[in-house]
Amino acid sequence: MNAHAQALAAYGTPNTAQKPPRAIEYDILAQITARIRAAIAGGPMAFPALADALNANRQLWTEFAFDLAPDDNRLPTDIRAGLLGLAQFTVTQTDAILRGESTAEAIIDVNVAIMRGLNGEGGMI
Q1: Residue 124 · residue 81 · CB < 8 Å
Q2: Using an 8 Å Cβ cutoff, are 86 and 125 in contact?
Q3: d(CA 59, CA 87)
Q4: Do 65 and 111 meet the contact criterion of CB atoms below 8 Å apart?
Q5: Which of 24, 26, 30, 74 shows a CA-CA span of 20 to 30 A to 59?
Q6: pLDDT tens-digit map of 26-39
Q7: What is the pTM for the complete model shown?
Q8: Which residues, other chains included, contact 73 with Cβ-Cβ below 8 Å and sequence gap of 6+?
């Protein structure tokens, strides 16, 4: 086996086409939402996994907020405002869940609605 064949066997075929940002955002939201759902299904003993997934979700929404906040963001103002409101809701709701005062269903609903919007299915806000 030559060096090229060995590299392909070890690393696979390189994908030269990069995903668009919306697809990347969708994938990350889908992964985090799946982690939240799996932790919920695991019951009370899976609380550490739920906390970890919720913290990842909070970090993602914080990044979204940082990207949305600058005046040079090209999204329409009303969409930016709605998404910033959802980011704040996500942070507040995550804190309530971690304190045992709420459940994660609303977080899942928000993520799924945004995923639908990113996928062109509507329901973004």
Answers
A1: no
A2: yes
A3: 10
A4: no
A5: 74
A6: 999 999 999 999 99
A7: 0.80
A8: 67, 80
Q: Residue 42 gets which letter from DSSP?
A: T
List helix spans (H) across 12-104.
Answer: 21-41, 47-68, 77-98
Question: What pLDDT score was predicted for residue 122?
Answer: 62
pLDDT, position 117: 92
Cα-flanking dihedrals φ and ψ of residue 122, to 5°? 80, 180
User: How many Cα neighbours within 13 Å face the side chain of 98?
Assistant: 15
Tokens representing residue 52 in the block: 């970890």
DSSP H or E run through 105: helix 105-118
Residue pair 107/39 in contact by the 8 Å Cβ criterion: no
Given the structure tokens 């066997």, which residue do they identify?
9
> Hey, what are 97's tokens?
């869940």
Sign of CA dihedral 75, 78, 79, 80: positive
> Whose structure tokens read 């990069």?
18
Q: Token pair 């969409």 is at which residue? A: 79
Structure tokens at 11: 């690393």
